[in-house]
Amino acid sequence: MRQWRELGGTAIIRKDVAFAEYFELDSTLLELVQPEIVLSPVFSSNFDCADLSLRLSDLGFTGSYRALATELPRPAMVEREIRVLCPTLDFAIADLHDLYRSV
Fold it and tell me: Angle at CA 41, nearest 5°, toward 86 and 5?
């Protein structure tokens, strides 16, 4: 949650939204929440999107994973790397500026 706020986000309180720290992500949490989509920053102090992609794949996550960034120089390069690491994961970089413009 701290990192979300650092990126300029505000708390979203809804029954269909859950926040969790990287270290909290395990099979029990995925079974409880059953997320359709997982959002995270591309880079954080505790993990990066490659770490989270591997964990989600190892846990059998079948939803979408979007890593949030602002002006990442070469997002396609990161997306290719994740496809090599986790070929079955639905992964993409989402630029926060584009998301804000579409709202």
Answer: 155
Structure token pair of residue 92: 């993409």
Backbone angles phi, psi at 52, to 5 degrees: -70, -35
Instruction: Work out the number of other CB atoms within 10 angstroms of the CB of residue 47.
Output: 18
Total domains, the chain = 1
User: Among all chains, which residue has been given the structure tokens 């120089």?
Assistant: 73
Residue carrying the six token digits 């720290």:
21
- The pTM assigned to this predicted structure is 0.82
The string of pLDDT tens digits covering residues 31-66 is: 988 999 999 999 998 899 999 999 999 999 999 999
Please name the residues in contact with 57: beta carbons below 8 A apart, sequence gap of 6 or more: 85, 86, 88, 89
Write out the residue range of the structural domain in which residue 83 sits.
Answer: 2-102
pLDDT per residue as tens digits for the range 8-35: 655 555 677 888 888 889 999 999 889 9
| pLDDT recorded at residue 100 | 62
CA dihedral 33→14→96→63, nearest 10 degrees, is 20
